[in-house]
Amino acid sequence: MTKNVLILGASGSIARIVVQNLLAQVGADITKLTLLVRHPQKLAGLDLANRGVQVVQADVLNTDHLATIMAGQSLVYGNLYGADLGQQAASVVKAMHQAQVRRLIWISANGVYGEIPGAYGRWNQAMLGSTLTAYADATKVVEASQLDYTLIRPAWFQDEPEVDYEMTFKGEAFKGTEISRQSVADLVEKLIHDPEQLIGESVGISKPNTAGPAPRWYS
């Protein structure tokens, strides 16, 4: 089924991989790909010369403008960050309801439920601090949204050229300490192509066999 896909925060490190991988499919499985960014220059290096690709400069906190952009979209993938992430999530949810778009894929963070046991949980909390609070605020908004959402809670990112991951679900202890950006992008792309998967789920994602007090690259 062809679809229109809106990516919020399209210049983010995960979103750029997703965009790069989806570009070849615009005009086939994807009818239109809309990339929302605050700074379009951050998309430099991506080949966006496709009539099915639209770059929109906008602020997600402008709810009415955002709802206009969302009109006719099949699904929304949010790759946002910031101290006001809870407010951003609230604006996205409100705009989706206004535009009558139901499917949302949202990047959160590991630790938003206090679901990481042991030393790594303490390290993660200390390292993320108020950033984790912002992700937790946004997670609560998405979970209360009555939308068809999937929350993705990645471990700490690394850049190995691999797709290798396992998932945990809300209520389960988080596994692992790290995850490749390629792996997170792979899960996002699977949900874009088959949006009936994992509706209403909050999914932790990490590389198998990476348990420890901190990611192995941390010193």
Automatic annotation (TrEMBL):
<dbReference type="InterPro" id="IPR016040">
    <property type="entry name" value="NAD(P)-bd_dom"/>
</dbReference>
<dbReference type="Pfam" id="PF13460">
    <property type="entry name" value="NAD_binding_10"/>
</dbReference>
<feature type="domain" description="NAD(P)-binding">
    <location>
        <begin position="9"/>
        <end position="195"/>
    </location>
</feature>
<dbReference type="InterPro" id="IPR036291">
    <property type="entry name" value="NAD(P)-bd_dom_sf"/>
</dbReference>
<protein>
    <submittedName>
        <fullName>Saccharopine dehydrogenase related protein</fullName>
    </submittedName>
</protein>
